[in-house]
Write a structure and sequence with these properties.
Layout (H helix, E strand, L loop, with lengths): L1 H26 L9 H8 L18 E8 L3 H14 L3 E8 L1 H9 L6 E3 L3 H9 L3 E12 L1 E6 L20 E4 L5 H12 L10 E4 L2 H9 L5 E5 H5 L4 E6 L8 E8 L5 H10 L3 H9 L8
Parallel strand pairs: 1-2, 1-3, 6-7, 6-8
Antiparallel strand pairs: 3-10, 4-10, 5-8, 5-9
Organism: Paenibacillus yonginensis
Keywords: Metal-binding, Molybdenum, Signal
GO molecular function: metal ion binding; molybdate ion binding; tungstate binding
């Protein structure tokens, strides 16, 4: 009897040991639980738990535009650029002013330029033909007139083209016809009036229209062919007369974006701004006229 009781107690003890060991074995195993979408996103994206700021954008980096522009646009463009830069703080506008023909050659030779503003259609057309200007972003922006100016102390000595033949008119300044549109227009007008050959001994040529104006301002020329807009910038000369517009082709100022620009978005912003009423009003203030659309 006693032996049976002992045997039962031993058997019970063994069963309990087995049960305990079995429980410990199951407790050591980990369940394979699929990760939740939230835990997956947090692991894949650093700082995923930090909410993003609504509407946040990367700050725009500063950009410098190079604008090759006819010398006759100097004063108007400098004023216009101030308003443009105030509205576009990350864009700074640098100008390369000169004769349109010279600027055309610079662009053809790979000189850096983002926009070209010419004082003659032929210079723009040359670049369009060579596919250096984007034809979809080129437009005639302005018109101008050709005038003859004289020093203030010359009185009314010159009132017509024929008066340029007078002996007292010793020097007549014009821009180099091959590269300065104003000089080319002057040559056209003088040829049409039959005066070009007879005035050759009197002419002195300037590298751009502003130099022609300076010749007259300083008394180094008795008369000079410039744009009306240039004449209005000086208080040292007077407009003797306006040249008959039927003697030369219309003076147009086309503008276009250079295909090689590295700042196409900013170049287009300035291109579009030049066509706004705000900018065109400044051009009109300086004597330019706006083409009829």
């Amino acid at each position: 009897m006693i032996n049976k009781i002992k045997f039962s107690m031993v058997l019970l003890f063994v069963v309990m040991i087995i049960a305990v060991l079995s429980g410990c074995g199951n407790g050591g195993k980990k369940e394979n639980v699929a990760p939740t979408a939230a835990s997956t996103d947090s692991a894949a994206v650093p700082n995923a738990g930090t909410p993003a700021k609504a509407g946040s954008e990367e700050p725009q980096s500063d950009v410098e535009l190079t604008i090759s522009a006819a010398a006759s646009l100097t004063d108007a463009l400098k004023e216009i650029s101030q308003s443009f830069e105030a509205q576009h703080p990350h864009i700074h506008v640098n100008f390369n002013f000169g004769a349109s023909g010279m600027l055309q050659q610079q662009i053809e030779q790979g000189a850096p330029a983002d926009l070209f503003l010419s004082a003659a259609s032929k210079n723009m057309q040359a670049l369009l033909d060579k596919q250096l200007i984007d034809s979809s972003q080129e437009v005639n922006l302005l018109n101008n007139d050709l005038v003859v100016v004289t020093p203030l102390d010359k009185g009314d000595m010159v009132q017509t083209l024929d008066d340029l033949k007078k002996p007292e008119v010793k020097t007549v300044a014009i821009g180099i016809p091959e590269s300065v549109p104003a000089g080319n227009y002057a040559q056209e007008a003088l040829q049409a009036a039959g005066l070009w050959d007879s005035l050759q001994s009197k002419t002195v040529q300037g590298k751009d229209v502003r130099q022609v104006l300076q010749y007259v301002e300083t008394g180094n020329a008795d008369a000079g062919f410039v744009y009306k807009t240039d004449a209005l910038t000086s208080d040292q000369v007077k407009v003797a007369f306006s040249v008959d517009s039927s003697l030369y082709k219309a003076i147009e100022y086309p503008i276009g974006i250079v295909k090689a620009t590295k700042h196409s978005r900013e170049a287009e912003a300035f291109y579009q701004y030049l066509q706004t009423k705000e900018a065109l009003d400044v051009f009109v203030k300086y004597g330019f006229t706006i083409p009829q659309k």
